[in-house]
Amino acid sequence: MNSNGYNVYKTNTVNYASKEQMLLMLVEGAVKFCKIGRQAIVDKDIKRAHNALTRTQDIFSELMVSLDTTQGEWAVQLFNVYAFIKEKLIEANMSKNLEILDEIIPLVEDINETWKEAYKRSKK
Predict the structure, then answer these.
(1) Quick one: which of 22, 89, 98, 101 is 20 to 30 A from 50 by CA?
(2) pLDDT at residue 12, as a whole number
(3) pTM for the whole thing?
(4) CATH of 19-122, one of 3.90.230.10, 1.20.120.340, 3.10.310.30, 1.20.1070.10
(5) Is 44 exposed, middle or buried (0-12, 13-18, 19+ CB in 10 A)?
(6) Which residues contact 108 (CB under 8 A, 6 or more apart)?
(7) Contact 37, 56 (CB under 8 A)
């Protein structure tokens, strides 16, 4: 019963989130799943690592699709950063390479912090 209430809350949070809030949820999820994938590789849990890294790849695919690259050079550059991260995630997932994840996790965290700050500033 308790988990049903939580699932309803989670569903409502997503269904009624603004575009900006959805973007924040996506980038926060990317950080979370990237770290879960890394830990799963450490733990030699290949299936869990694959699932987490695939979810992160899917998040970056969604972020890429949602970008309007006609809005200027910044959007094109951000698209290229997202594409780079997604490519590295695929490589890390195929090889289960911690070094690759250690290279991109700080980038994913920076993107998360940048979007959080942009959201805060837009609300002022």
Answers:
(1) 22
(2) 47
(3) 0.83
(4) 1.20.120.340
(5) exposed
(6) 27, 30, 31, 34, 56, 85
(7) yes
